[in-house]
Every structure is written in C-alpha cells, then in structure tokens.
UniProtKB/TrEMBL annotation:
The keyword Ligase applies. Pfam families: RTC (PF01137), RTC_insert (PF05189). GO terms for molecular function: ATP binding; RNA-3'-phosphate cyclase activity. Belongs to the RNA 3'-terminal cyclase family. Type 1 subfamily. One of its GO terms (cellular component) is nucleus. This is RNA 3'-terminal phosphate cyclase.
Amino acid sequence: MDSAAVEIDGSVMEGGGQILRLSAALSCITGSAIKITKIRAGRSTPGLSLQGATIGSTDISLTPGKIRSGNHTADTQTAGSVCLLLQVALPCTLYADAASQLCLKGGTNAEMAPQIDYTVKVFKPIVERFGLQFDCDVRLRGYYPKGGGEVMVTVNPVKELQPVTMTERGNITKIHGRAFVAGVLPFKLAKDMSTAAVRTIRKEIKELYINIQPLQEKEKAYGNGNGIIIIAESSTGCLFAGSALGKKGVYADKVGIEAAEMLLRNIRHNGCVDEFLQDQLIIFMALAKGTSRIRTGPAKFTITKCEDQLSSNVTYIIECEGSGALNPNL
C-alpha cells in the first residue's frame, strides 16, 4: 500500500457503509489511494458484506487506476440494494472517457436503502441539476430475501459538474405515489397501505388531492414483497418522499402510516430536500465547479442556521465550495 494513502476512519458519525461507498468513488475520481478502517463499525454486523473481498473485513485498501467506460455488471447475489451500488458507481462513471452501461443486480426495494422508485423519481431529477444525465431502466424488481432484481443504467460522462442552489422551497403543490404488492401477496395489502397513507396525510394537508395508486407487480418482479413510496412536489421543483416496506407480521396499514409520517416529517421543516437526499447530494456538491447552497432540515454537518423562518422548525443552509474536479478523459 502506498505510504501516501489517505486514511479514513469508517466508524465516524453513524459508522455505516456510506463512508466506504463515497470514499471509494472519490478515490477513483481523484486517483488517490485510500485505506479505510473500522468499516461499518456502527452496524449490528460490522465489516464488509460483499463477495470479492473478505466478508466481515473491517479494513480495506484501494489503489485506483483509470476509470474505464463500457459495460459493467455488479451482482450482490442477495437482496443487497442496487441503489447503493449506484451510489458508488454513478460519480465514477461521470469521469470516464465515454458512456457507461451498468447492469446492477440485487434488491430494488430493500431495507436501509433508497427504493429504486426514490432513485428514479426523486434523486435523479434533482442530481441532474448538476449538469449530469443518466437513464435508469428497471428490468426486474427484487425483494428481500431473494433479491433477483435487475436495473440497467446508462451514464454519460461530463467535463465538469455545475453548482446547484436550492434555498426556496415554495408551496407543496402535488402529492402522489405507489403502493405495491408482488408475488403471492394479495392486492388488498396495496389498497390498505394506500388508504392508510392518504388518511394520515389528510390530517395535516387537507387542500391537495392525494393520488397513491395501489399496484400489483406481475411480470417485472421476482419473489414476494410489498411497500409504498409517496412523493411531494413543490412550486419551485423541490421533491420529498416517504417510504416503507412490508414485513412479516406487520399490518399493511402500519406500513402506509409509516411512509406518510416520514413524508410529513420531511416537509414540515420547510427545507428544499428530504433527510435522505441531502446526504446523497454532498459528493456532487463537493465535485462541482463553484459554490452549491442547499436548504435542508436538521443536519449533521457544519452549516448556517437560517434566520428567516417560514415554519416553527429550524432549517439550515449547507454551503459547499466544490473542488471543480475536471474529467481528464474528455
């Protein structure tokens, strides 16, 4: 291992896999070798959970080479999230010399990770404001514990990313979503999730039409699963979501209520992104050329507190002077 490798403590803050994913992506983009220790120290099962490295290992070293475009396949061989695979792959492919096609296999709707619907409907339109563009085709949905999902992603490279400013939320103008069942699970579960979610949101937001469609996944699903995602749109183009997945022994209406309460929590604070998107945008803010400013809810970084409050809750501005990382391959 190069003695000049950047050493990273994987146990800081929540001690999850996000440190590993973002560190690996930044290592590849900058060409800097890294050594990460105490990987996933904050999780119930610390260490790596992937094939191709030692399962359970809490240390890893990476000396990157040139980022290669072309066709790449990543298969968790479990219900591991394809969306988390995309979190590490997307920033890298932006700095390749040509378009890349990624075949990502595993869980599309998994616990402790964004659902693929969140990635396509919330993350994608917002992250594309940085000047990037990618397509995401859900070929097959996969659920816990079997996985088996497949998503095809096409990414075009960029010379550099542009900064983003999102500081004015505006009014919530639209709320919509999908409640789904797949496999042998009865369609009634989807309707129960939808009904409970609408009823919960109605208690707080009475003036908007709420459209949460119950759906039966048939051809494009592998295994059994149920869940819900609800998306709110604002007059300035901000997007927020609440989601939940069904579990054995948990009533469907509880799943719908959980997703609805998550959505309400994320729009009460009057920020411009929800609690999940704010984490996912940090790496793009850091790579962009120029200063990005995004208004969030309560966050874990050093930020500026907003004084002009439009709600009773506190909001903040995350401000980041990006590194202006250039793509040397274009």
